């Protein structure tokens, strides 16, 4: 070694003349003091002598140069550009105040430039209204967003177009809006409710000329400082950066502008000689393979601490800013998700939409996610998740001619194991997420992995090691992409998703400048990871896939990505949960009925499938599934909007059902139409599920409804209503009223008159004693289902999470359990069809009414099915920071409980063995939660709640919370909701729990059909579509095809069915299609209805059906498209004899 070294020296440059003597002190530094010094280079206490003094050549703000006029829109109105321009403006000036919160103010700005500014290449207008704003041309094209105030997202500069600079005159328009990036939180604590009366001062409306070199030096210096401060350990690059930054501090002299250039020259020691002139070409030098892939992004919450209409402005501001930025930085790429935001832009800002579209087509503005919004993924139904992708992908395809390849849910509060299959079926194979870095118990072990869903489908998943989707593009961020990567052994690249979110407008110019410098440094040193730019997220994943041998080298994660945080969001804001579930069920009924009406057209030959109206309803439901709306974590204003949307869906859905019914039955009336009930006619139920069923339906019986009285089995004491038993036990669409069958189990209720009540039939029995459920018995088996000595009922927990109030219920809430007692109990129905007791009592400020009912029928038509106990609650809720649940201590034992998830179920531990098990103390479920052991189980069914838990043997459903941030009145007031307790013979897997839960959530749509209606062929025709041969296969959706042309006679006529396996095992099922449906072809498709395979079909044995055999694996979702033929007949036929050749009942 020494030999070679010596040899090398002789060959190299001349030896240094090392001095003989040294009387100096040497150059050893005190490193941390030098480090500390860097903070004084710009601004702060030394602003009058440091770099701050040379950042601007000129600044003017007087009226000779700047003329401002303003018009304030009334109230919280948000007029369009055109409307605003018609108003009368009045003079305004810097320093004026505007407000209150959420108001919009329009400015007309005229600037005149001094002649001596001709020498400058760049002149800026600096506008700081202390809130958000947007700059428009005078003809209404948005140019860029403004974020006022002094946050890290400050963006107040607008570079005047060069023509304007040359003309020394420019007119433009600004809209300022009185809210910040995070709305207007009370007292400045981000998650506090809004301060509705905040005012904002126009802090700046100045013309400025920047010293461009000084700004470049500022960015040089901050990169050097970041390198010195955030690279770990003691490395040569880190020291070199500190030495260089220190030398710059010694060189810069505010009175000698030449010192700026000299300082910048010093920075080349780290960035390389002449690096700055290379511009974006810096990314073409150095290492061939980058470790960090930079992509600009702006995570815009579709509503959160501000309402939807403010989001529309945020989108326009942010995206215009990015379009402007990509024109100045050729390497810049920007990606944004959420088709809904693109649609808003298209509707509200058409000129900007065209600019964005041009950048999309040019490959710089990237579509991502493929979904309608970045939805919550815990609570939407399987079909709703499918629609998120269908509506998203179809929108992107229709407007830009392309679909997304990468699903994108970085901020959703946990991700269902149903997603991988749906992502693949929506034409994507990659998935980006991030939120699990917020886990507050366990650290998620992977960054890049195969995510395998409940059915075995995988997607390639990247969870950025940078731990954020709003990175600031610092050296620390870039470095974390490597140091925090948990799978470097199998994949060594990371995504850097950078840019301010929400009102922050995405990446700032300084971030792009920083990344150029970081890359320049990496081109000269291996101590900093090389970052690249100019690529898409899809390309990043392509490289991961390729380098990992198509994922074979990566670890797998099976099942849900459970977020160990924000567990209160399954319950917060009961109204939004209920609106979501009811709308999902309503739209399924609407689509099914409208599909049949559009095929049969018996009583309205002009009926057209109301495709647009159904889609409008879906868009509203999908919008409210946004990841801060459905979880209940938004401000109160958002819920006012969401309730309106649900009310519109309810109204429209009811009308669409009315239209479909009158097409299928000429004269039918809703049961609410009491006057119509006096006519001669019959109750008719329309079964929109695929399941045979019996239902107890409450029917109003007023005076004159004698005819109806004969159709009910049981009337109320005062005769004002009765209960009919509707039978559809043979399957098919039509349920009719009937008397008690021999296999029904008449119910009864006993009381000893002093707080002891027993609801009973020959199937099950429930006892309330001293206000608590003291016994639950399977009568047929004589088996007690509650643990001896324990009781069930309502319970209250103190609910004070550590910070995120509406989001979190924390594990310590379980330490304070207060059982409530049902009191003031009375018998309200005595059987034989329904027996009910009602308890009405006060708890502190709240009134709780619970009616417990038992019917003479079983939960489903499965042979050994038991009866349900239905709990109907009406709660006037006025508590704060308390959590209401219902619990049952079951005499059952299992390590896991089962909860419904989208298109399947998920099992979670009931014990606290490990911290991973403990973390799941509150979990999300859909229509059921179940605790089973060999031979028996008990489920709780839910029709509008999503929070459950099973700890040990205690199964709970979460009912109401009461957070005060960010909505200070969350859940205050009236609530109506129901749940059911369902004992069942056999383990869950052998049970009818999923069927019963489906029926419990789908009340039988029942109408009164009068007069000619009783002759409707609908009453006599069998089911159009049925799934047989496998009880684990569910027909979820019946709708018309996405590509059908409804208004014209040409094109495909098709019906699309969504069918899935609900228990987690293989199945061979037959899809049967009634012969009168003229099927010409049948295709298996993906969610987007792309044909994947043509299926052969045959005559069924009964010759009444076409039959298709379908093979499923566990939790598989299939989409089947039936293409109907005989359009030739369609053109020639008329009236009730429409083109579908039905098997006409003889009497028609
Ligand atoms: Zn978010």
UniProtKB/TrEMBL annotation:
Superkingdom of origin organism: Eukaryota
Keywords on record: Glycosidase, Hydrolase, Metal-binding
A GO term for molecular function: hydrolase activity
Reaction it catalyzes: Hydrolysis of terminal, non-reducing alpha-D-mannose residues in alpha-D-mannosides
Span of domain Glycoside hydrolase family 38 central: 564-646
Entry-linked Gene3D superfamilies: Glycoside hydrolase 38, N terminal domain, Glycoside hydrolase family 38, central domain, Golgi alpha-mannosidase II, domain 4
Broad class of enzyme this protein falls into: hydrolase
Pfam families given in the database record: Alpha-mann_mid, Ams1-like_1st, Glyco_hydro38C2, Glyco_hydro_38C, Glyco_hydro_38N
Annotated EC: 3.2.1.24
InterPro entries to which the protein is assigned, alphabetical: Ams1-like_N, Gal_mutarotase_sf_dom, GH38_C, Glyco_hydro/deAcase_b/a-brl, Glyco_hydro_38_C, Glyco_hydro_38_cen, Glyco_hydro_38_cen_sf, Glyco_hydro_38_N
Keyword Hydrolase: yes
Family affiliation: Belongs to the glycosyl hydrolase 38 family.
Protein name: alpha-mannosidase
Originating organism: Rhodofomes roseus
């Amino acid at each position: 070694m020494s030999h070679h070294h010596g040899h090398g020296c002789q060959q190299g440059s001349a030896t240094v003349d090392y001095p003989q003597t040294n009387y100096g002190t040497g150059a050893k530094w005190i490193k941390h003091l030098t480090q500390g010094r860097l903070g004084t280079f710009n601004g702060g206490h030394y602003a009058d002598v440091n770099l701050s003094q040379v950042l601007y050549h000129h600044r003017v703000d007087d009226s000779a140069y700047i003329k401002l006029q303003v018009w304030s829109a009334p109230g919280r109105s948000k007029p369009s550009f055109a409307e605003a321009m018609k108003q009368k403006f009045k003079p305004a000036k810097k320093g004026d105040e505007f407000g209150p919160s959420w108001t919009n103010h329009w400015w007309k700005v005229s600037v005149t430039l001094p002649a001596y500014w001709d020498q400058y290449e760049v002149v800026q207008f600096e506008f700081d209204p202390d809130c958000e704003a947007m700059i428009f041309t005078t003809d209404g094209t948005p140019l860029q967003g403004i974020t006022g105030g002094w946050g890290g997202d400050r963006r107040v500069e607008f570079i005047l177009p060069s023509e304007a600079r040359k003309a020394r005159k420019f007119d433009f328009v600004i809209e300022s809006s009185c809210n910040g990036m995070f709305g207007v939180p009370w007292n400045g604590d981000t998650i506090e409710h809004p301060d509705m009366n905040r005012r904002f001062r126009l802090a700046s409306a100045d013309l400025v000329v920047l010293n461009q070199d000084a700004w470049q030096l500022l960015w040089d210096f901050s990169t050097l400082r970041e390198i010195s401060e955030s690279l770990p350990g003691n490395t040569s690059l880190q020291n070199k950066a500190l030495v260089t930054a220190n030398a710059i501090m010694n060189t810069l002299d505010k009175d000698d502008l030449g010192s700026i250039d000299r300082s910048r020259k010093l920075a080349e020691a780290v960035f390389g000689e002449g690096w700055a002139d290379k511009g974006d070409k810096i990314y073409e030098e150095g290492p061939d393979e980058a470790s960090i892939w930079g992509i600009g992004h702006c995570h815009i919450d579709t509503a959160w601490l501000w309402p939807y209409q403010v989001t529309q402005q945020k989108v326009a501001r942010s995206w215009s800013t990015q379009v402007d930025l990509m024109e100045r930085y050729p390497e810049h790429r920007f990606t944004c998700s959420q088709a809904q935001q693109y649609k808003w832009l298209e509707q509200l800002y058409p000129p900007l939409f065209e600019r964005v579209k041009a950048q999309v087509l040019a490959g710089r503005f990237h579509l991502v996610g493929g979904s309608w919004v970045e939805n919550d993924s815990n609570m939407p139904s399987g079909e709703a998740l499918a629609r998120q992708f269908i509506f998203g992908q179809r929108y992107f395809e229709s407007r830009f001619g392309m679909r997304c390849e990468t699903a994108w849910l970085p901020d959703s509060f946990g991700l269902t194991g149903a997603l991988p299959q749906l992502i693949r079926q929506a034409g994507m194979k990659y998935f980006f997420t991030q939120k699990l870095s917020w886990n507050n118990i366990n650290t998620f072990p992977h960054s890049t992995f195969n995510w395998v869903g409940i059915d075995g489908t995988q997607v390639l998943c990247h969870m950025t090691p940078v731990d954020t989707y709003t990175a600031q593009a610092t050296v620390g961020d870039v470095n974390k992409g490597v140091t925090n990567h948990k799978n470097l052994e199998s994949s060594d690249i990371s995504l850097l998703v950078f840019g301010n979110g929400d009102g922050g407008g995405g990446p700032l110019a300084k971030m792009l400048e920083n990344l150029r410098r970081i890359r320049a440094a990496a081109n000269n040193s291996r101590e900093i990871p090389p970052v690249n730019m100019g690529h898409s997220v899809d390309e990043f994943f392509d490289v991961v896939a390729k380098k990992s041998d198509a994922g074979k080298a990566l670890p797998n994660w099976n099942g849900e990505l459970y977020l160990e945080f924000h567990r209160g969001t399954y319950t917060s804001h009961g109204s939004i949960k209920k609106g979501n579930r009811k709308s999902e069920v309503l739209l399924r009924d609407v689509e099914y009925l409208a599909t049949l009406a559009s095929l049969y057209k018996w009583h309205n030959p002009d009926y057209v499938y109301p495709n647009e109206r159904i889609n409008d309803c879906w868009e509203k439901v999908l919008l409210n599934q946004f990841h801060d709306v459905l979880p209940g974590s938004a401000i109160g204003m958002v819920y006012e909007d969401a309730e309106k949307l649900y009310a519109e869906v309810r109204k429209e859905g009811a009308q669409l059902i009315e239209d479909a019914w009158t097409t299928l039955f000429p004269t039918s009336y809703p049961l609410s139409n009491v006057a119509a009930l006096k006519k001669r006619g019959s109750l008719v139920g329309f079964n929109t599920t695929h399941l045979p069923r019996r239902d107890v339906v409450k029917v109003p019986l007023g005076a004159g409804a004698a005819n109806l009285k004969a159709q009910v089995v049981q009337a109320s004491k005062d005769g004002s209503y009765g209960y009919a038993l509707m039978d559809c036990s043979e399957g098919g669409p039509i349920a009719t009223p009937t008397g008690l069958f021999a296999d029904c189990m008449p119910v009864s209720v006993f009381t000893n008159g002093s707080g002891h009540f027993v609801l009973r039939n020959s199937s099950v029995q429930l006892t309330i004693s001293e206000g608590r459920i003291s016994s639950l018995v399977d009568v047929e088996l004589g088996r007690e289902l509650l643990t001896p000595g324990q009781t069930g009922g309502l319970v209250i927990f103190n609910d004070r999470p550590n910070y995120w109030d509406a989001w979190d219920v924390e594990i310590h809430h379980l330490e304070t359990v207060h059982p409530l007692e049902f009191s003031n109990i009375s018998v309200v129905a005595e059987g034989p069809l329904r027996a009910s007791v009602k308890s009405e009592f006060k708890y502190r400020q709240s009134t709780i009414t619970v009616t417990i009912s038992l019917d003479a029928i079983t939960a489903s038509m499965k042979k050994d099915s038991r009866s349900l106990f239905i709990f109907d609650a009406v709660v006037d809720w006025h508590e704060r920071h308390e959590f209401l649940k219902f619990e049952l201590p079951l005499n059952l034992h299992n390590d896991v409980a089962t909860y419904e998830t989208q298109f399947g179920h998920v099992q979670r531990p009931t014990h606290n063995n490990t911290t991973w098990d403990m973390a799941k103390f509150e979990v999300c479920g859909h229509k059921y939660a179940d605790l089973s052991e060999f031979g028996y189980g008990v489920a709780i069914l839910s029709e509008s709640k999503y929070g459950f838990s099973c700890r040990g043997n205690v199964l709970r459903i979460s009912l109401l919370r009461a957070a005060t941030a960010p909505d200070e009145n969350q859940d205050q007031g009236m609530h109506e909701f129901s749940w059911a307790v369902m004992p069942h013979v056999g383990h869950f897997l052998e049970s009818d729990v999923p069927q019963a839960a489906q029926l419990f959530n789908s009340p039988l749509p029942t109408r009164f059909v009068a007069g000619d209606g009783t002759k409707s062929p609908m009453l006599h025709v069998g089911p159009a579509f049925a799934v047989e041969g496998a009880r684990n296969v569910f027909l979820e959706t019946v709708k018309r095809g996405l590509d059908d042309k409804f208004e014209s006679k040409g094109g495909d006529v098709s019906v699309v069915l969504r069918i899935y396996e609900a228990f987690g095992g293989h199945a061979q099922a037959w899809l049967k299609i009634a012969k009168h449906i003229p099927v010409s072809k049948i295709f298996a498709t993906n969610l987007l209805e792309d044909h994947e395979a043509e299926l052969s079909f045959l005559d069924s044995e009964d010759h009444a059906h076409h039959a298709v055999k379908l093979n499923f694996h566990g939790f598989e979702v299939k989409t089947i498209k039936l293409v109907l033929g005989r359009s030739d007949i369609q053109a020639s036929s008329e009236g009730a004899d429409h083109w579908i050749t039905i098997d006409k009942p003889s009497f028609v």
